[in-house]
Amino acid sequence: MQCHRVNEVIELLQPYWLKNAELSLVEVLTQIMKEAGYEGELEAVPDDLIIYHLKMLNSPDGEMIPGIKKDCEDDFKTALLKARGLA
To answer: Pfam families this protein is in (predicted)?
Structure first.
């Protein structure tokens, strides 16, 4: 992981862990994995899963992930023109 991603994980993880202070780090990560619906091994959990789950945790249901939202176009014609480099 790059330095800014490490800092982002720590910043996002701190409030979550403080709410669950009785848990160890591995238990906190396991809980995040379960909440996110990840069924793989702890060693294979992608850092993006942790980051986006913690970012979206307090968002309203149906809210779009920020990384996807910036590329989303409501109008198909605009999206097509943008994809072709014309808009």
So the answer is: DUF1040 (PF06288)
Residue 14 domain flag = yes
Residue 46 is assigned to a structural domain of this protein:
yes
Domain count, the chain: 1
The phi, psi pair for 81, rounded to 5°, reads -65, -40
- Reported as a single tens digit per residue, the pLDDT across 39-69 is 999 999 998 889 888 988 877 777 777 667 7
Instruction: List, as one string, the DSSP characters of 43-67.
Output: GG--HHHHHHHHHHTTSPTTPPPHH
Domain that holds residue 32: 3-61
Tokens of 37: 């619906």
